[in-house]
What we know:
Elements: H1 8-42, H2 45-57, H3 64-71, H4 78-89, E1 97-105, E2 108-115, E3 118-127, E4 133-136, E5 143-150, E6 156-157, E7 160-161, E8 167-173, E9 188-197, E10 203-205, E11 208-214, E12 221-226, H5 230-245, H6 253-257, H7 265-270, E13 283-298, E14 301-313, E15 318-332, E16 335-343
Parallel strand pairs: 5-12
Antiparallel strand pairs: 1-2, 2-3, 3-4, 5-9, 6-7, 6-10, 8-9, 10-11, 11-12, 12-13, 13-14, 14-15, 15-16
Amino acid sequence: MKRRGLRPAAAVIIIMAVGTLALLGGGMWLKGQREAFEAFESGSPDAAAQKAAANLLSGELDGVYEETVSLNDMRVSKDVYENALRGILADVDPAGVSVTKTGEGGGVSQYQLFSGSELIGTFSLRKDADGSWKTGFPLYGHLSYVLEVPAGLQFEVNGAPVDESACLERNTPASNFFQVYGREFVPMVDVYEISGLLGEPEITANGEVYGFVKDPMSERLLVGRRVEDPEFEAYMIDCGERLAMYPAQDCGLGHVAEIALTSSDWYQKYATLQNYWFTGHNIMNFSEEKVLGAVRQSDDTVVAHVVFDYFADDGEVSRTWHCGYQLTFVEMDGQWLVAGTEICSELNPNQEAPE
């Protein structure tokens, strides 16, 4: 019997069908390979590093601070950290950014982020048990601060416990009480030096945020519980204004003695001042009165920064003084008395900076 051949049209249909199946199969294979590759990449630190860099450059900082602190010993508050990081990344062109792996160990991979040939910073990645990646982009500053904290206080700086190796002195008199050293009410402090900060520290103890004022002479941060009492703040301002009024001939010495620890060194010197700071005048007033900060160094001692503007006019000449004081108080027999003073007009925001 003669074998019948395939018609040309049928042959073409079969070839096309085989080709289509081949293409479909190849496409499905490629798709599967791509998906498998992407799945592999999503689990690799290098791919996660690229994604982390892209997120940073896009300004997505949600959770970055928390993850960074969990991966690095970094003493910086969240606000300071995020502002600094935004400043670093502000002028970076994403098109010129590259990521280079520098090391791996202990489940953590280390990377460097470059803009062209310029190093932007280093960051690290750690894979958690749930398969997600944590990114740490640490920022370390060059600022150091010396802190005087109430003796024996266990405290944290920017959320991290302070290592005892940072302690310089223990149980020493607070430096702002130098005008009454030796008195039983002088608070004792521990002195610490904290380095590697980007800005002023946030200090906490037992879940409470502590305040500080910066001593204008020693530049130490005098740490204590915040004083937020409007009536007490008004009294502090009144004390500062009395100190300014006597040299300007606007009150007598007795007006100052009412609020002063008269046995203190500062008062003994103050009482000898010649009060000719300004000529006699009929017009005077205070404005811009503020307590910039006040903290309790102990139950019966407080240190505060007080500022105000003092205007006087004798009919021919007028002048405004931008006054600033650091006042140290001690409570005696139910009254707060000024135990120490430091004049510092630079505290006043209205004071013009020297050229």
